[in-house]
Automatic annotation (TrEMBL):
This is D-malate dehydrogenase (decarboxylating). Its EC number is 1.1.1.83. InterPro entries: ICDH/IPMDH, IsoCit/isopropylmalate_DH_CS, IsoPropMal-DH-like_dom, TTC_DH. Coiled coil: none annotated. One of its GO terms (molecular function) is tartrate dehydrogenase activity. Pfam families: Iso_dh. Residues 6-347 form the Isopropylmalate dehydrogenase-like domain. The keyword NAD applies. Keywords: Manganese, Metal-binding, NAD, Oxidoreductase. NCBIfam families: PRK08194.1 (NF006048), TTC (TIGR02089). Its cofactor is Mg(2+); Mn(2+).
Length: 355
């Protein structure tokens, strides 16, 4: 009998809705080949929902999501609703309630895509960024005082816990051990003198359990430069919430377009649903034109298959994306002329074309 998987689907705003719809059809096709039967649980939670109800999601939204096995998200955010409302009203509560403490973002230059960098001969871009996803710089600790006066000030505290840093480091070290045995740790312990030396210490203590992995610390500024100058040197990169956020937009840029880059918000123990989404946002500048690149969402769906324990299905989906790209079917962000639907159709055709 087919495996039943309940997936909560939150298309969100703007191009989020445009890239989600075809992705579900593609997942259904992959699922049919691998004995997976998807039951979609659709949620219209979005900035539009906020404008109507004053909330990004209903009060019992998290309880509804808890019944799902996995969550697929498009993107949220729209002009008129402040970005901190869309982020703190939906994304961040989901990441925290479900202990999705790892944000995994592959940075891989797919065949058929021209790299915007002038790479040294023989360079391959293929690495993983592990972003700590539950604490760090994105904290609610702090406040503002003396509003509107010349004495006004704002304080925001970063929160780094031993448990939080260690589990992110361990996840990254495990990955590195299973790949090329190299871990780059993003730090800034020269300027940020409490939290970042602590980060370094915990990463290196954890690494003692992994004699086969070479760990190198990079200050975040120098690391950003190396992403551009020598991206081929990286295998796995581990970073705090903010550093990882910034690095992965840069990572998405060097693989050709932010429209391709995927991410998984993982609860590695599988005690709670994990959430898969493209790195990009709702792109109000191109929303409604039918030209959004669906590959970021489709690649995120492949990460979901992998997390569900279907690596073969996941790999097939990535191969279908690669074949689509090398076949020249591309959206305008990659220099092509294809629409969202045409790219998605091409991927759908490729799924299963090997038999
Ligand atoms: P964005 O990622 O939406 O757009 C940045 C640029 O990349 C735009 O020029 C856009 O047209 C282009 N782009 C993005 N995705 C694309 C795709 N699939 N195909 C082709 N081109 C694509 O980032 P921006 O403009 O900073 O944010 C827009 C809204 O999205 C904001 O409200 C922001 O808060 C929200 N956002 C939401 C995220 C999420 O839901 N996880 C993540 C990032 C931003
Ligand atoms: Mg970001």
């Amino acid at each position: 009998m087919d495996e039943q998987v309940r997936v909560a689907v939150i298309p969100g705003d703007g191009i989020g809705t445009e890239v989600m719809e075809p992705t579900l059809g593609i997942l259904e096709a992959v699922g049919r080949r691998h004995g997976i039967d998807f039951a979609w649980q659709h949620h219209d939670w979005s900035c539009e929902h906020y404008t109507r109800t004053g909330r990004m999601m209903p009060e019992d939204g998290l309880e509804q999501l808890a019944e799902a096995d996995q969550i697929l998200l498009g993107a949220v955010g729209y002009p008129g609703v402040p970005d901190h409302v869309s982020l703190w009203g939906l994304l961040i509560p989901i990441r925290r309630a479900f202990k999705q403490y790892i944000n995994l973002r592959p940075v891989r230059l797919l065949p058929g895509i021209e790299c915007p960098l002038r790479l040294k001969e023989g360079t391959e871009i293929d690495f993983l960024v592990v972003r700590e996803n539950n604490e760090g710089e994105y904290s609610e600790v702090g406040g503002r005082m003396y509003r509107g006066t010349p004495d006004e000030f704002a304080v925001q505290e970063s929160v780094f816990t031993r448990r939080g840093v260690e589990r992110a480091a361990r996840y990254a070290l495990d990955l590195a051990a299973s790949r090329r045995g190299s871990l780059a740790s993003a730090t800034k312990s020269n300027g940020i003198i409490h939290t970042m030396p602590f980060w370094d210490e915990v990463v290196h203590e954890t690494a003692k359990d992994y004699p086969g992995v070479e760990v190198r610390d990079y200050h975040i500024d120098a690391l950003s430069a190396q992403f551009v100058l020598d991206p081929g040197r990286f295998d796995v990169v581990v970073a705090s919430n903010l550093f990882g956020d910034i690095l992965t937009d840069l990572g998405a840029a060097i693989i050709g377009s932010i429209g391709i880059a995927p991410s998984g918000n993982l609860n590695p123990e599988g005690e709670h649903p994990s959430m898969f989404e493209p790195v990009h946002g709702s792109a109000p500048d191109i929303a409604g034109q039918g030209i959004a690149n669906p590959l970021g969402q489709i690649w995120a769906a492949s990460m979901m298959l992998d997390h569900m324990g279907h690596p073969q299905a996941a790999a097939e989906l990535v191969s279908a994306m690669e074949a689509t790209l090398t076949g020249g079917v591309r959206t305008p962000d990659l220099g092509g002329t294809a629409s969202t639907t045409e790219v998605a159709e091409a991927v759908l055709q490729q799924v299963g074309s090997d038999d």
